[in-house]
Design goal:
CATH superfamily of the largest domain: NAD(P)-binding Rossmann-like Domain
CATH class of the largest domain: Alpha Beta
Strand order of the largest sheet: 11-12-10-9-13-14-15
Bound molecules: uridine-5'-diphosphate-glucuronic acid
Largest sheet: 7 strands, mixed
Distance between the termini: 58 Å
Strand content: 5-15%
Structural class: alpha/beta
Number of domains: 3
Helix content: 40-55%
CATH topology of the largest domain: Rossmann fold
CATH architecture of the largest domain: 3-Layer(aba) Sandwich
Oligomer: single chain
């Protein structure tokens, strides 16, 4: 078993740390935020993620995981140091690598024995080479430090499961020594491992995410055409899915992809191409389609209603997808301000995301409009003139078509997630607009 340090306790770092502890390694998670460290020590997860808190408590009690702000003591005798800090988008779309650089410098100043530094954060191709050079330049002790790439493929909402039962582990190394350590670290997981060089590993991460983003944008593009020519996107997707070369996943048309990964990683790869004098036309198209998709239903509803001024608007779902409290790049963040600007009286429901949303749009008067956060779907729908569905939470999917008819003042529903059957909504007397399907 190995002694591991993990830099950064966001989705990537914390989940990796907990899962390495779960398979028996000795893990220390490092974060600069003292309050967060104390919270984690007390057994509370700073993020909402299935099974995470239970595994944190179990492995902390077993002495396999600890949390600290003292990076020096965590790094000095680690066999491997994983970097899982953020690489946020910069105004030009490129990835901001300043957090990685800070950690690299701290590692260089702290390590006192040979150690493998593993970059888990999503970084542009070539970054690992630079990180290695950077560490060498600042290294204080006479020890061997190499850098390896080990991109993360977990999805929010199923992060622990995706890590423990990953479909593949990608390791990018430049030496047998580094490859052996990574193989050893992942050995107890019993997962398929693809060993490549560092630059290929870095590219696999972007190519995979951007391919999935492309798949979604392609389906959204086809959905928009379906509406114009009288086809049904769900039937189309079903018909396509039987072809194993296409597959059945990620064919759901909707109000565009959000989250911290696809929007950022598509722009970062497009940017990398540009820097290398190449235009990545397919990815650019995926970004364009996604930008138009997010406010598609708002635009449709605007035509139907002329104005939202003074209307009671039910908003169901605020997060970028179910199973998370994350709002990054969520469609709600684009649509709610447009509705408020029009003077809408919004009643918003989200089982876990409302608190975060209220930090951006506090309850009460909001510009020309007003927003109230409610604790159940019924309260949101009661007396509403129009309803928008932005996230397919189980609690939203459980609402029967008849409920819209009986609870709303006007049963007018704009569903960005195609939750309902068009026929059932029609039979229940609901005016139902969705994506890629005739009303
Ligand atoms: C995504 C990838 O799925 C992970 O493999 C990857 O590791 C992760 O990014 C990352 O790079 O960290 P995540 O952003 O958590 O994971 O969420 P997804 O489940 O992929 O959903 C992203 C967005 O696409 C959501 O807004 C979702 O609603 C949308 N989506 C997904 C669709 O609109 N249609 C679909 O068919 C699938």
């Amino acid at each position: 078993m190995y002694k591991i340090a993990v830099a950064g306790t966001g989705y990537v770092g914390l989940v990796a740390g907990v899962c390495f502890a779960e398979v028996g390694h000795q893990v220390t998670c490092v974060d600069i935020d003292e309050d967060k460290v104390n919270l984690m020590k007390s057994g509370v997860s700073p993020i909402y993620e299935a099974d995470l808190q239970e595994l944190m408590q179990k492995n902390y009690a077993a002495g396999r995981i600890d949390y600290t702000t003292d990076y020096q003591s965590a790094y000095k005798d680690a066999d491997a140091i994983f970097i899982g800090v953020g690489t946020p988008e910069q105004p030009d779309g490129s990835a901001n690598l300043s957090y990685i650089a800070t950690v690299a410098r701290q590692i260089a100043e702290s390590v006192e024995k040979d150690c493998l530094v593993v970059v888990k954060s999503t970084v542009p191709v070539g970054t690992n080479d630079k990180v290695e050079q950077f560490i060498q330049d600042f290294l204080v002790h006479d020890v061997k430090v190499e850098v390896a790439s080990n991109p993360e493929f977990l999805a929010q909402g199923s992060a622990v499961h995706d890590t423990l039962y990953a479909e593949r582990v990608i390791i990018g190394t430049e030496s047998e020594w580094a490859e052996d350590i990574l193989m050893g670290l992942y050995e107890p997981f019993h997962l398929p491992v693809v060993a490549v060089n560092r630059r290929s590993a870095e590219m696999i991460k972007y190519a995979s995410n951007d391919f999935l983003a492309l798949k979604i944008s392609y389906m959204n593009d086809i959905a928009n055409l379906c509406e114009l020519v009288g086809a049904d996107i769900q039937d189309v997707a079903k018909g396509m899915s039987y072809d194993e070369r296409i597959g059945s996943k990620f064919l759901n048309a909707g109000i565009g992809y959000g989250g911290s990964c696809f929007p950022k990683d598509t722009k970062a790869l497009e940017n990398l191409a540009k820097q290398n004098g190449y235009e990545l036309k397919t990815v650019k198209a995926a970004i364009d389609v996604n930008n138009g998709q997010k406010t598609k239903l708002y635009k449709k509803a605007s035509k139907r209603l002329i104005t939202f001024n003074g209307l009671k608007v039910a908003v169901l779902g605020l997060t970028f997808k179910p199973g998370t409290d994350d709002l990054r790049e969520a469609a709600s963040l684009e649509n709610v301000p447009l509705l408020l600007e029009q003077g809408a009286d919004i009643y918003a429901y989200d089982p876990v995301g409302a608190e975060n949303f209220a930090k951006v749009h506090p309850a009460g008067e909001n510009g020309k409009g007003h927003i109230t956060y409610v604790s159940n779907v019924e309260e949101a729908l009661e007396g509403a003139n129009v309803c928008f569905i932005f996230t397919e939470w189980g609690e939203v999917k459980a609402v029967l078509p008849e409920a819209y008819k009986t609870l709303m003042r006007t049963p007018l529903v704009y569903d960005g997630r195609n939750i309902y059957s068009v026929d059932e909504m029609k039979a229940a007397g609901v005016e139902y607009h969705s994506i890629g399907r005739a009303p």
